[in-house]
Amino acid sequence: MTFDRPYAGCYDLFYRDKNYESECDMLEEIFSKRGITPSTIIDLGCGTARHAVLLAQRGYSVTGVDRSEEMLQIASDRIEETGCEVSLLQQEIQNLRIDSRFDVAVAMFAVIGYLWTNEALMGGLQLVFAHLEPGGLFVFDCWHGPAVAVHRPQQRFQRFSGADGAEVVRLVTPHTDASRQIVDVEYETLVITDNCVTSRAGEIHRMRYFHPMELRLGLETCGFRDVEIGVFGQPERTPAADDWNIVVSARRPLEDGGAVGFSSGCADNRPAETG
User: Fold this and answer.
1) What angle do CA 150, 44, 137 make, to 5 degrees?
2) pLDDT at residue 152 greater than cutoff 50
3) Which residue has the higher pLDDT, 92 or 264?
4) Angle, vertex CA 19, rays to CA 16 and CA 22, nearest 5
5) What are the structural domain ranges in the chain?
């Protein structure tokens, strides 16, 4: 499984320098530009709830959804520590079933890339659409296909200082399948205490990267309209070939028309065990 122990336990350590505050600023910039003042937000693939907690602290009613029990436990602990009110649910995007609609749906940190088959992607987009209020907004980021083709994912070796004097080592090895727009990202995590390896585990995260026109086609086929695509962190700027991350926003119309229907048997990615 992905996002299992010990990877989930090291997740916040790996991304301790990620600027979640500025990413929430960007989200609010997009909300303002789109003329929407949301009350309710669903955070899809919420992970350890870093975005969800910050959004709740900014006054939004937030529901976090993730498939990983380990990540949700860490999220629950963070929510309790901060005193925020964030609801948590263990579900997968492509099987999303909540008896509520939301003003905004967000899927941050390339969560959409885990919907790596066409069936999973379209099933997920349809269900996000169904869980938005009319006029609601869907905002997500993902890997930008032209940049992946130009730069190609590279192997990385990282060291971190963990708890109780332990050292955490992470080796990241990508394997790209350009014909399917997929990168299998192999993570190997080692915990070293007193010069001895006390824990060792590996995960493979299968990630899809996207080209702008296929995103527009998928979103519009599922009923979304008014699709805008910008550079992650600079949503007003049109992506260039070397911009690795893009941010996408799309609206559910006030009056729906032309959206495809969806069945109760939406496809998922479970055979590949990618989180």
Assistant:
1) 85
2) yes
3) 92
4) 165
5) 7-145+209-272, 148-207
Alpha-carbon gap, residue 224 to 189, rounded angstroms? 39
Class of CATH domain 148-207: mainly beta
pLDDT of residue 2: 81
pLDDT tens digits, residue range 218-233? Answer: 999 999 999 999 999 9
State the Cα–Cα distance between residues 251 and 256, nearest whole angstrom.
Answer: 11
246: nearest Cα among 204, 205, 214: 214
Q: Is 261 exposed, middle or buried (0-12, 13-18, 19+ CB in 10 A)?
A: exposed
Whole-number pLDDT of residue 256 = 63
* pTM exceeding 0.85: yes
Q: Which pair of structure tokens corresponds to residue 143?
A: 């890997």
CATH code, 7-145+209-272:
3.40.50.150
